[in-house]
């Protein structure tokens, strides 16, 4: 896969999770005009993430998925004022995490558990 395919697939996976859990907005991914460093940032309702990544670097798919999920969480929290996504069993905010070669949404409730792979929330 080329770098851009990794990034495109990653943004689509997180967008899928948003749609599956009732977040109606679209997740953007580009470099804002004001960014002299040229970072690709996650964007939601006009709000860009506080950091991003460079298109011209190698991006490992699992780590990138965890990063983009984290950035999406940040901009959704800022724009909608809510924690997203949450655990269906515990109502706690989920954390994107790399574990065993997979990118997972994890919950700290009940001693800690994985809820779903990122991109496969229901
Ligand atoms: Zn839970």
Shape: globular
The number of domains:
1
* Mean pLDDT, all residues: 94
**Number of strand segments:** 6
Main-sheet strand order equals 1-2-3
Which segments are poorly predicted (pLDDT under 50) over 5 or more consecutive residues?
Answer: none
Estimate the helix proportion, in percent: 25-40%
Number of helices: 2
What is the strand content?
15-25%
* Structural category: alpha+beta
Pattern of helices and strands: HEEEHEEE
Radius of gyration, CA atoms, in whole angstroms:
14 Å
How is this fold's topology laid out?
Blueprint: H1 3-20, E1 27-30, E2 41-44, E3 47-48, H2 61-80, E4 95-99, E5 102-107, E6 113-117
Antiparallel strand pairs: 1-2, 2-3, 4-5, 5-6
The protein binds zinc ion.
Residues 87, 89-90, 92, 107, 109-110, 113 line the site of zinc ion.
Task: Supply database-style keywords.
alpha+beta, binds zinc ion, 122 residues, 21% strand, three-stranded antiparallel sheet
Describe it for me?
The chain is an alpha+beta fold and 122 residues long. The chain has one domain. 31% of the residues lie in helices and 21% in strands. The protein is built from 2 helices and 6 strands; from the N terminus they run H-E-E-E-H-E-E-E. A 3-stranded antiparallel sheet has the order 1-2-3, with helices on one face. The protein starts with a helix and ends in a 5-residue tail after the last strand. Zinc ion binds next to loops. The site of zinc ion (ZN) has 8 residues, from loops.
């Amino acid at each position: 896969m080329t770098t851009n395919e990794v990034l495109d697939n990653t943004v689509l996976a997180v967008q899928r999770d948003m749609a599956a859990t009732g977040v109606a907005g679209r997740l953007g991914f580009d470099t804002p005009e004001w960014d002299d460093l040229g970072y690709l940032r996650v964007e939601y309702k006009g709000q860009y993430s506080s950091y991003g990544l460079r298109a011209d670097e190698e991006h490992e798919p699992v780590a990138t998925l965890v990063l983009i999920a984290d950035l999406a969480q940040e901009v959704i929290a800022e724009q909608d004022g809510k924690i997203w996504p949450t655990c269906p069993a515990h109502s706690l905010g989920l954390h994107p995490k790399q574990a065993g070669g997979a990118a997972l949404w994890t919950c700290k409730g009940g001693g800690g558990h994985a809820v779903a792979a990122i991109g496969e929330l229901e």
